[in-house]
Structures are given as structure tokens and as C-alpha cells.
Amino acid sequence: MRPAVALTVAAHDPLGGAGFAADLTTFAALGVHGACAVTAVTAQRLASVDRVAAVDIDLVDAQLDGIVADLDPAGLKTGLLGSAAVVDSIARRVAGGELPAPVVDPVLVDGRGRRFVDEDIERAYRERLFPAARVLTPNLAEAGLLVGRQLATVDDLISAADALADLGAAYVVVTGGGLGGDLAVDVVVAADGSVDLLAGTRFDTTNVRGSGCTFAAAVTARLALGDDALAAIHHAKEFV
After folding, report:
1. How far apart are CA 12 and CA 14, in angstroms?
2. CA gap 169, 236 in Å, rounded
3. Buried b vs exposed e over 168-183: b needs ≥16 C-beta within 10 Å?
4. pLDDT grade for 111, boundaries at 50, 70 and 90
5. DSSP class of 74
6. Kind of pairing, strands 183-190 and 171-174?
7. What is the CA radius of gyration of the chain?
8. What's the pLDDT score for residue 76?
9. Taking the model in full, what pTM does it have?
10. How many CB atoms are closer than 10 A to CB 103?
11. Residue percentage of the chain with pLDDT more than 90
């Protein structure tokens, strides 16, 4: 029996803890076949992202053409996309039915809050990809950047997720591990305005890397296996 296929469109992390490396590991752990289209090559250390080199749009498109032709992905996750042209290409393929509605992990800043992307990419996200998303999964810093204010409480997360849901995603999950405390509370807001809080034990450690990538990839894997979106989100929270 042919396994379900999940596709990640994301960047390379040479340390293996984030980007498409984390996505493919998660896909395998959850029983789906992982395909990947590489959007950028990075040079990183545990405490820094030293260089980011975007892959040319023609090469990204060639990767996607081959994947779509041969594998028929049932799930799609996006990470660091590298250029507005890549955002537009994915949105166009989703609108045309070549790719399923994506889980969008909007990689806009690094762990220290430094922006990865310029305003053209952020604008393309807002106008093209967020409205097409089945699930949008910003972390605390990304959600704060997108809504233009600092987020410091669970109520702030709910307000931010509600504002982002207005951009068209079916579900918005703002992951709240960055708030601190004993619990990691993620906020889920659906397009109809309903709110769900997912709480789990927060592990206070400096050795976490790629947790956001892993969460979004787990949602994608469960969608590829046939879960509805809310069930996939709950499964992903438990997995992480």
C-alpha cells in the first residue's frame, strides 16, 4: 500500500534540528513519506544564524514540478520560503489544485527576534498564502510581529490569533511556549471565532531547537493521514 505523502517547502538547517530536517524526521515518526523542496541554505550555530542564501525561484519551481508530478502530496507544510516569488508560486499551486491547503509556519524571525525576511515577503504571506492556509502556526515572536505589538499573556495570544484569523486561514495556532511559566499554552482560533486552549507541561531548557517546525510538521502529517484540522492540531501538541 502506498504511504501518504507530506511535502515540506523549507530551508536547510545544517545542525539538523530545524527546517526540513526536523520536518522529515517528524513525518517519518508519524508514518508518512516526506518529500521536500529546498528554499534556502543556511549556515548556523546553536546560538546564531550566520548566513541565509535563498534558492533561485526557477530551481524551487523545478523541485515542486517533479514532486507534484510523481508523488501527489496529501499534506503541505511551508517554513522559511526565502522570497516573495516562492510564496506566490506556492499560493498559485494551491489555488490551482496542484497542492493541498498548507500548514503555514511563517518563519519571519529567529529565536532572538532578528527578522529573516523583508517586507515584500511578509506582504506576500498576508495577501497570498495566509488566506489559503488550512492552519497558520506562528510562534510568540512571529505573531507579535504580524499584529504589530508585544504579546505577554494568554489573552494577548487570543487577541493576536483572532486578528490573524481575519486574514483567511481556517485555523490559527499561536504557540505560547515563549511566555514562560510551568505550562506551554497554545491558542487555537478557528475562522468562525471559536477558541481552544491547548496546555502542556513546559520544559525550561536551553536545548530546544525546531519545536515550531516539529509542531507544524506534525499537524501536516496528521492531515495527510486524514485527520480533520482540529484533531491534527491536538495530535501535534501531544507529539511535541
Report:
1. 6
2. 18
3. bbbbbbbbbbbbeeee
4. low
5. S
6. antiparallel
7. 16
8. 98
9. 0.94
10. 33
11. 72
